[in-house]
Amino acid sequence: MVDERAGGKHTNSSISRRRFTLAVVIASIAAAFGSLLSFLKVLAPKQKGGGYVSTIKPRDRLVYARGSNTGNYINISSLNTGDAVLAYPEGKTSNPANLVQLIKLDEKVYKSPTHLNLTDQGLVAYSAICTHLGCTVSWVENRKTPDTSYTECFCHNSIFDPTRGAKVLGGPAPIPLAQIGVKVRDDGTLIFTSGFTGPIGPQV
Amino acid sequence: MVFKWLDERLELREFKDHFLSKTFPAHPTFLLGEIALFSFITLVVTGVFLGFLYEPSSKMVALFGAMVPAAYASVVRIDLLPMGMIIRRIHHWSAMIMIAAILAHLMRVYFTASYRKPRELNWLVGLGLWTITMGGAFTGYLLPYSKFSVTATSIAYYIAKSVPWIGGWISRLLFAGTFPSDGTVPRFFFIHVMLIPIALIGLIGLHMLILVKQKHTEPISNKSKKEADGGRRLIGIPIWPEQAAISVSFYFFLLFVVVLIATYIPLNPIETYGPPSPGTPVMRPDWYFLIVYGFLKLIPGDLSFSILGGKITPETIGGVIFPTFTIAVLALIPFLDRVKEPQNYMANPLHRPFMTSFGVGGGIFLGMLVVAGYIDVLHIAPQRMLVYTIVASIGAWGISYALLRLYNKKRKGGG
Description:
The structure holds two protein chains of two kinds.
Chain A: H1 2-43, E1 62-64, E2 83-89, E3 100-104, E4 123-127, E5 138-140, E6 150-153, E7 158-161, E8 167-170, E9 179-184, E10 190-196
Antiparallel strand pairs in A: 1-2, 2-3, 3-4, 4-9, 5-6, 6-7, 7-8, 9-10
Chain B: H1 2-10, H2 12-20, E1 23-24, H3 31-53, E2 60-63, E3 66-69, H4 70-80, H5 84-111, H6 120-142, H7 147-161, H8 167-174, H9 184-214, H10 222-229, E4 237-238, H11 239-264, H12 270-273, H13 290-298, E5 305-307, E6 310-312, H14 314-336, H15 353-372, H16 375-378, H17 382-414
Antiparallel strand pairs in B: 1-4, 2-3, 5-6
Helix pairs in contact in B: 3-5, 3-11, 4-5, 5-6, 5-11, 6-9, 6-14, 7-8, 7-14, 13-14, 13-15, 15-17
């Protein structure tokens, strides 16, 4: 009798013991992995800048961003109608958010929503960072009719109309490139006159 | 002599009798998986060479009087070594060939329905191998840290960041902070040379183990021979020595072809791209990313909507949701196309109108997305290309289905 009861008890307790062991194993694994979650935070460092933040200030002077003249002042006399160059504010060339595309077209072609007060002698400047996925935009020049030249991002073929506030003409870009004010100084070199008119960089 | 010495200690004869005398069914398409495996071996060997000389850092150093990222400088130095550039090209070409072979192998398994019971698990392992190989290709892209690498990776960074709710965290985890920043290259290097090879070796081992356990599917032509024989045994050639001789000579022939290609066809000329600088060149990713690249070009820019406080953008749809969806559909196939009895023969694709036409339509769809990667060269408007893509893939599906139905009706009627 006693033996039987003990045996019965033993059977019962062995099942619950197995369950208990299983619960302990699962709990320990869960606890260990739970503690690992804190490592994930270490592995994903906090954002430093928070995307594209321009440091251009009015009166900053424009310099060439690429080519053999890199770092030299841009002079209006070296730009023909239909030309476009990539420019940085002087001394702030390590921040890609400061990169602008400076375009020279006939003064009369600019229409709304271009901010005409931010243009000068046919010069207009837009952020050169595509609003799609952050590639640098390029200039597609039409030599015969310079005013039909346009800005294109060669990564996914977003096309922007420089005469209409860099409106998106085609491709995946969600918003226009932001405009920034430029002005010609007496010596022909250029300065910025404002900040960007809208958000710059990839809109994600 | 050597065999005897080893056999006395390791009992190799048992292994030889059990494993090496196994039969491997012969069919030309069974070599596709081997091409992928052999390319991986080449990748490991050339990767060891490159790993010894590469410097995983994007800190600026002097190279011939100019300041460039250390990673870029070290790759330029590798290119200047005797045979250095060839080794790098062999590495890159092998990756392209490996992915091509994986896809061809996947198509072979799909169209011959070799994924059916009992081989569902190995189908899933295969999909895992494909995904991880793509991860290897992607992380390898950045390492030379040229203008091209940085632009391509930057695009991927913003795609990761565009994922709703968790995108910011995922992108910072994957790229070790924002991109570009100095954390990214070491992290990608470690993933590329450590995590991905280990995962691939493990999964390749599993793939092979399951294959050996379940035995290879056989050509349907073996069926009558086997029934005449009355046996359950596979018909084919023994692993040792016949299949081994074929495989070894096949490997070295493949290596010969890859070296020839790498010698004459330049690939990823980082000296031409130069170190990262303002301005983006006209660029296209390697062919296996053209599908996603083409999709990103086709999808309209204003196709974004918000749910539960998260914004679903076209970048998320094209770069994350679409590839995940494709893999998920493939993963579900063996569980949708179910059979009761285990199948050990390859099916004839012509006898399976629905699955075959679905595969044809899907293949045409992915092919059209590759073409969409070239719309700027072909001068086709994205909206028009989108219509072409949809019409071509659904058309191919419908037409091939109708033709196969007709064929089978005739076949059954005639028989």
